[in-house]
UniProtKB/TrEMBL annotation:
Name of this protein: DUF2157 domain-containing protein
Domain of life: Bacteria
One Pfam family cited in the UniProt record for this chain: DUF2157
Domain DUF2157: 11-158
Keywords: Membrane, Transmembrane, Transmembrane helix
Transmembrane region(s): 43-61, 67-88, 108-126, 132-153, 158-175, 190-208, 220-239, 245-262, 271-289, 301-321
Organism: Flavobacterium pectinovorum
Protein's UniProt keywords contain Membrane: yes
Residues in coiled coil: none
InterPro entries tied to this protein: DUF2157
Amino acid sequence: MIKFEEQATQKLLDKNLITENQYQEITTYRGLNIFSLNAELKFFLYLSVLLFTSGIGVLIYKNIDSIGHIAILSILFVLICVCFYYCFKNSKGFQKAETVFEHPVLEYLVLAGNILTCIFIGYLQFQYEAFGTHYGLATLIPTIVSFSCAYYFDNKSVLAIAITGLAAYIGLSVTPQDLLKNINFYEDQTLSYSAIMLGVLLILWTVYSSRIQLKTHFNIIYLTFALHIISIAAISSLINYFEDIVWLFFVIALAGSSYYFYKISYEYKAISLYVFMIIYAYIGINIFIFRVLEFMDFRDLWIFIIIALPIYFIGSIILFIKLIKNFNKEIAA
């Protein structure tokens, strides 16, 4: 790593992008072997918020009969008020551009306050049915609160919660277990259409946000959710609904999504979008090939297929590595 940094600095000097004096200052600074604990401290802050909110949930679950519902709601409400009081007091207010708190701890207070608000509203609906039989409101209201907090306080973690809540409101479960098992999409094909529509709406929102310059640094989060939601919905339907003519719709949806995110990954120089786009496109291509082979009688070619499969997968791995290397070279140029 040190050798790589020295080579990179030398290239900057060779291209006259930095002066000899700047080169010496950089070399001297790196020689001090100073390293930052900023990322580690933020990770522990994030972990502490998750542990605290999880602890609140466990405490409620195990002592719900002894503590009492009113007491639990009161404690939650007080904690929420304390979190948001300090956040509003120290925030710079809403701004269209990217903003940060002067103290990073406040970012995690926003996250804690938002999660506690979701717990409070969910508990209120579960215990007292505050919204009656309109159970969707118990999801929609925390989602609206999360979007408001995300944009007002410029918090990406809260934005992720808001998008997850929006997906849950239309009936999508985005837990890793459900996504891997394709539970929702398999049971109800209409959810596949809803998922693709949601993904398209997220993409359109990024386009609109870019035009009005509204929190454009949020776009990568919207695009990441859109990529996963559209691709998983399309692939799930390609597997489960081959008999229907609408199968071609999901082929087109996956192909269009792959092409769009191929272009957008270069625009945002986002390696994460590029890697997952390749993976989803590769899965889709293999499903398509397998479905086509189902119509062919290749019993006499089974020896050739057995020989070709290892070559195919090895070639795929080599191509994948080559694509990643080319991407890194092009965005670094």
